[in-house]
Amino acid sequence: MPAPLDATHDPARKSWVASANDADTDFPIQNLPYGLFRRSGVDEPWRIGVAIGDRILDCKLALELCPWGGGIAPLLQPLAAGDLNTFMALGRPAQRTLREALSQALSEGSDQQPFLELCLLDQSAAEMALPCRIGDYTDFYTGIHHATTVGKLFRPDNPLLPNYKWVPIGYHGRVSTIGVSGQAFHRPLGQTKGPDESEPVFGPCKRLDHELEVGVFVGRGNDIGQPIAIDDAEEHLFGIVLLNDWSARDIQAWEYQPLGPFLSKSFATTISPWVVTMDALAPFRSALRRPADDPQPLAYLASDQQRQAGAVAITLEVALQTAAMRAQDMTPVVLTKSDYADAYWSAAQMLTHHASNGCKLQPGDLLGSGTQSGPSPGQGGSLLELTQGGKEAIVLPGGEERRFLEDGDCILLRGHCERAGARRIGFGVCMGEVLPAPAWPPAAMR
Fold first, then answer.
1. Whether the model pTM is above 0.70
2. Mean per-residue pLDDT for 80-84?
3. Which residues are part of the catalytic machinery?
4. What is the CATH number of domain 137-437?
5. In this model, does residue 45 exceed pLDDT 80?
6. What DSSP string describes 248-316?
7. Is the peptide bond before 441 cis (omega within 30 degrees of 0)?
8. Domain 7-129 falls in which CATH fold?
9. Domain ranges in the chain?
């Protein structure tokens, strides 16, 4: 079942960390996401922290300096050691136990305040890393509005392939190039072929794009050969981050048939540093919407739980800041907004389908949602959609135009959950910057 509501979700609960009570903070006491950090400029071991307002609760210091009730110290030990994967593997009951203990300890009037005040660090003084060891990364295609819009660009009469409404489509991505927010990457090189060219050429990508996604981290895994039932899938989910699946559209167009994306997707993926747990997202679950005349999921993906509360309502947005905008101190311009509640397949369905053939999933495995576009023309989660395949330029506030990304461009993803009767929570920022392509050929080949 999706996580139940409890005292940790009480919108009236306030923290003795003053910034956590600000109305516009992403990290009130109702959130409490996990991230891997150390003090900037200090060569010290990484440890897990908990975001609270504009501060970080250092789990290593919290274990060493603060008294805890029975059973809590063992739950903090892997976090103090910087090992979120081991904590993920403990399962949802243990994770809820620690969430409740942290919420009480950070609440106004807590007896633990004098100890935990010594365990806080300003987020601005921290360096963040990938929150856990990511063993495998699978990117799905659950955004039906994105799939339909992109499909129309290439197949106007048949935008969705026959399997889309029956099976959660996915492909295996590249873990080694996943980076945390702030990632700067070189424009990729690759083969491209224009429609009027007789043969392909090798060189820098000319149609570089972003993709607005969320990433779902697997918590407890499964044994190889053992599927995960859809009604059990929620207990295997840990939390959600924002995810930018950067895409080289011209490389992709030439390489993707017959085996799908390869070098067009493997050069960079950026995620936000704070993992918002599925328990924190409990107040924002909603019905998994599907048109009445669409086929219903096959039995192994069908569940009353998922129909009633399988979706997560997350307002998502993409903003762009060019190098010229930064030089003029101009605010990033919002390109689009959408809602993760519009996803055609839920996180639980992605996980269940992934394991249905006996595939072994492990704590820290990352499942990408695919691009989350909205139903309206201006809600495309990629420039491919917003510019109609590069045909219509976007005019920026300073007069610049964009069809695809240029060197020096920064893309910022943001997301938040907001609902009457619940405290607004957010994900922080997921930012990546495009650097020029590396020199080609390399010096050794010249």
1. yes
2. 98
3. 146
4. 3.90.850.10
5. yes
6. EHHHHHHH-TTT--STTTSS-EEE-S-BEETTTTGGGEE-----TTSPPPPGGG--HHHHHH-EE--EE
7. yes
8. SH3 type barrels. (2.30.30)
9. 7-129, 137-437
